[in-house]
Amino acid sequence: MSQEEKLLRAKKVIENSRYLVCLLGMRVSSQCGCTNWRSDQDAYDIETRYGCSPEEMFSAEFYNTRVTQFYDFYKREILSKRGRINEGMKTLKRLEDRGILQAVITRDIYSLPKRAGCKKVLEIHGSIYRNVCPKCRTKYPMKAVAECAGTPKCTKCGTTIRPEVCLRGEMVNNALLTRAVDEVGMADTLLLLGCSMHSQLAKTYVKYFEGDKVILINDQDHYADTAADLVIDGKAMDIMSKLGL
Fold first, then answer.
1. Where does Zn(2+) bind (predicted)?
2. What is the per-residue burial (b if ≥16 Cβ within 10 Å, else e) of 121-134?
3. Residues 105-159: pLDDT tens digits?
């Protein structure tokens, strides 16, 4: 099947779907210009600059014991590289507006789908746009953390503000996981963008899918992808913008 034929087939399946659920992978974040500290290139660059791996710094232990160094890394490498919303991401919003897309499930912390206008988004690992004082529970926007000098402090009680993201070593919100499982279980079409069938995101949720079609769009091949009904090679957001949805 040619690439053009695959695009036409994907468009038809998506438009005929009554309950489309999207699993949005980390490669989409990278392609939108966000820092992906899990990628080999970003991890190498960060470790070269800081002398610690991003995996070590983006952890609950590092935050709890070296919060000044954590925020130096977090503000410079995460908050300053939040990416941009492209036409492919806007396609997801249009599908939601049409009543086709029922949920986006993502481990992305940059809130890309929400920034594109999607409302039905489950951010499994939280968002950089939500911050809270762990003592008095005062909420703070991302800008308050990004633009402060040094470690951000609560203006009411002086406690260090905590980003509402899931750091390494922390448990994911179980209620959110349950909601994501329920959404996948109700889907008749599952759309995987920027991840393989071998990714942690896919392995966590695909097993609950009981629908008709799995469409996978990614620019990296994996042997496990043969389990999908339709695989389209290419950058996920570029392909989505070509579907004409």
1. 133, 136, 154, 157
2. bbbbbbbbbbbbbe
3. 999 999 999 999 999 999 999 999 999 999 999 999 999 999 999 999 999 999 9
